[in-house]
């Protein structure tokens, strides 16, 4: 179990870090938070939980007004333009051990987040104090960059401040300036059950094969073994885009998470209250059911085709 809000605040006091605490209703956006603490002396922060294609995780903590371009940031880390994406919601619980809306540099206090890379906005250093959630979005604490640095140092994290709006060129003679901040270790999340798994191999290899010639006087000419192998190989490789269950599950989870997040707005919270969960569930079913059925069908057809191709290719090798 991860740190609680009270445990974190107690640790800040033990470290003799000056901070002020402001309690308020649960908020899910920076805009909602601003309604409760925006009038106070301090700068609001936004915090992004990201992952790359190799399952390495990042927390990017920036001033609310800072423009963070993920494509540019991805290139600066040496990950290519599309190397960064929002981390799936289950990673919040497994890695940061915080609920939705509570991403914060303070979550790195948990042992499960020891491999997460933290990028801090250099703009924090110019502020008298900054606002963060202390692992719970019903409270905001205000502290300065020196206090944040002291906390991070106490958990073995070196505070690293970068210009998140910079866009330096990256090329052959200009290596990515933030490449050293890429974590060395990946974090494996528990496997999610795949309810759309293709049929077993034993069901794939029983496709009917019609070997009858349609001509009467003409001789049926078999293609050479090499040609047949080439055609079969091409057929198999072309279907690989639908034959990766792990990618399918990851993409589906990402779409679901994005849809959930888009539905959790202050307006919807006020309108539906305790029934918001039911409303979101119905929305997900409506918007994703057709796409999921279509993708599952493609997986089934791909599995069937690859099983048949593999069987035929084996026969070709034996001839």
UniProtKB/TrEMBL annotation:
**Classification via PANTHER family:** PROLYL-TRNA SYNTHETASE ASSOCIATED DOMAIN-CONTAINING PROTEIN 1-RELATED (PTHR31423:SF3), YBAK DOMAIN-CONTAINING PROTEIN (PTHR31423)
Q: Which GO terms describe its molecular function?
A: aminoacyl-tRNA deacylase activity
* Organism field: Anisodus tanguticus
Q: Specify the superkingdom.
A: Eukaryota
Biased region (Polar residues) positions are 197-216
Under what name is this protein listed?
YbaK/aminoacyl-tRNA synthetase-associated domain-containing protein
The entry sums up its family as follows: Belongs to the PRORSD1 family.
Annotated YbaK/aminoacyl-tRNA synthetase-associated domain ranges read 24-150
The record, for InterPro entries, names: ProX/PRXD1, YbaK/aa-tRNA-synt-asso_dom_sf, YbaK/aa-tRNA-synth-assoc-dom
Region annotated Disordered, chain positions: 196-238
| Stored Pfam families | tRNA_edit
């Amino acid at each position: 179990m991860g740190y609680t809000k009270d445990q974190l605040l107690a640790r800040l006091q033990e470290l003799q870090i000056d901070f002020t605490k402001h309690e308020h209703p649960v908020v899910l956006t920076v805009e909602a938070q601003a309604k409760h603490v925006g009038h106070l002396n301090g700068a609001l922060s936004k915090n992004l939980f990201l992952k790359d294609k190799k399952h390495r995780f990042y927390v990017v903590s920036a001033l609310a007004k800072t423009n963070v371009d993920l494509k540019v940031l991805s290139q600066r880390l040496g990950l290519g333009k599309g190397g960064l994406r929002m981390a799936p919601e289950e990673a919040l619980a497994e890695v940061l051990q915080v609920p939705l809306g509570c991403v914060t540099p303070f979550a790195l206090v948990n042992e499960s987040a020891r491999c997460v890379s933290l990028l801090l906005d250099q703009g924090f250093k110019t502020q008298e104090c900054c606002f963060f959630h202390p692992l719970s979005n019903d409270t905001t604490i205000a502290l300065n960059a020196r206090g944040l640095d002291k906390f991070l140092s106490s958990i073995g994290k070196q505070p690293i401040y970068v210009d998140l709006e910079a866009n330096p060129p990256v090329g052959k003679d200009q290596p990515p300036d933030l490449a050293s901040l890429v974590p060395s270790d990946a974090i494996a999340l528990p496997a999610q059950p795949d309810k759309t798994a293709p049929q077993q191999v034993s069901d794939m290899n029983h496709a009917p094969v019609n070997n009858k010639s349609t001509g009467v006087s003409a001789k049926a000419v078999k293609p050479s073994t090499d040609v047949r192998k080439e055609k079969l190989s091409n057929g198999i490789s072309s279907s690989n885009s639908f034959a990766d269950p792990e990618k399918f599950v990851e993409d589906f989870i990402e779409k679901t998470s994005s849809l959930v997040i888009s539905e959790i707005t202050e307006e919807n919270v006020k309108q539906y209250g305790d029934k918001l969960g039911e409303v979101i569930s119905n929305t997900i079913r409506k918007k994703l059911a057709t796409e999921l059925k279509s993708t599952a069908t493609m997986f089934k057809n791909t599995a069937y085709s690859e099983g048949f191709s593999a069987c035929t290719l084996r026969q070709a090798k034996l001839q």
